Amino acid sequence: MAIKIKTEEEIRLMRESCRRLADVFQNLEQSVHPGMSTKEIDILGDQMIRRHECIPNFLHYNGYPASICVSVNDEVVHGIPRKNRILQEGDIVSLDAGLIYKGYHSDMARTFGVGAISPEAQRLIDATRQSFFEGVKMAKAGNHLHDISNAIDAYIKPFGYGIVRDLVGHGIGTSLHEEPQIPNFAQFKRGPRLRAGMTLAVEPMINMGRADVEWLDDDWTVVTEDGSWSAHYENTILITEGEPEILTLY
Ligand code: MF3
Ligand code: CO
Description:
The chain is α+β, with helices and mostly antiparallel strands.
């Protein structure tokens, strides 16, 4: 299976899918506050996606039971929203969501502080975000896929943070997960050549402590093994001959 090159019409649909998702995120970010349950975030996000006349692509994906992944503090990704999981001032919360517009998928994630957070937590969030942009600087036609991975790794290394290795970014289009897989840590091989018209979800997941993660008994929630906090930053991007287009920015 090769990496798909999207046509002009497909790219138009991807842009619109991503624009709608970014709009949902902007509204969701504003609604996050201490005292809120993670389930409330899911309900709000699900409603916003449907109001945009789109379908949440995470709901029922491999049995995932919600529309938004809500992961708090040491939860890395795929946290299941719960009525009794209440956000507290000082927490950090990672929201990950996607939607389908006219058959085309979008996917993005952000980590937010709940009220005032510690400088250490803010530093983790900022470094995770910046690592995405360092990776994406390399994301242009003619470069190789792993130039992205290597740039993310090189940026994070001086912080001493753990880069999650068990989960990776991915191609995206008519499916949520298409080829290729996009690791966030340094690779020996260069990987496939990037070409204009590829759409990719680049998504570094960075732990304040060690890189190791484990799965909770709910079969979904990924947590850090050492209990350290974790941040996530993801956008869907389009490869062009020049600068990449970041389709889910807001
Ligand atoms: N955003 C996740 C990913 O990148 C997908 C979540 S899977 C779900 O690839 F089942 F939780 F929805
Ligand atoms: Co993704």
